Amino acid sequence: MRERFEDRFVETKLSFVNGTAAKGVPVEVCAAGRCVTRPSGDNGTVGVVVSAQKLGSVKMSTLVGRVDEHPATYCQYVSPYFSPSNSSLAIQVPEDELECEAGQESRISIPVFFSTNNQSRATIFGQIVSRGKIQASFSEKVNLNAGELPINAEHHINASTPNASGSHIVTGVVILNITLPPTASPQAKLVIWYKRYDGEVVSDSAHLNVERCLGFGTSLEWSVARGQVGEEIALSLL
């Protein structure tokens, strides 16, 4: 079954035929047996949050014919999995491409949504996989404290009720501080996991887009700043 309290954020972008953002266009969103109408934002995006309980798919349809949504109906299916404790991790991938400087490590902070059952602390282990190899490994101790998820309540389709009084299941956000080696480019896969006290392993993975760069610093240097006709000039690769 799908994780009970792991909300899922689904977003798509609408545009008119001329390529401009479709602002304020009504969009019908159907999920978990319920349909609502949401207007698109200033940049043409429509985002909704649905509770994962009894969720199989999310369908979005434009209600005006002059909008080109490629196609006019968008459907995303949710793959089910089973967690005996209703625990989960959900990496929030940065929207922008991550910076990379040749020969230099990059430090990034990645938010991770979690739901956990009767566990307040964990050691999260992680790996950065790129170019067919594990480029880096790390671990970080975190507190799994209940907290508000940074989700607009207006986007909810079928809101879940975690963090309720007397419930052992809580949701929140932890921030992982990760060091990316320059060899983790241009695409990298982030894999994280932790082991619960009852032996269950809770995990997640996500793909990161990183600027293309070399694993070492390089520079080109001419032997002279200005040369004369017929003069030999050397070009060095450092």
UniProtKB/TrEMBL annotation:
Residue ranges of coiled coil: none
Chain ranges of the Alpha-2-macroglobulin bait region domain: 92-236
Entry superkingdom: Eukaryota
InterPro entries attached to this UniProt entry: A2M/Complement_sys, A2M_N_BRD
Database matches in PANTHER family: MACROGLOBULIN / COMPLEMENT, PREGNANCY ZONE PROTEIN-LIKE PROTEIN
Name the UniProt record assigns to this protein: Alpha-2-macroglobulin
Protein's organism: Penaeus vannamei (Whiteleg shrimp)
Lineage: Eukaryota, Metazoa, Ecdysozoa, Arthropoda, Crustacea
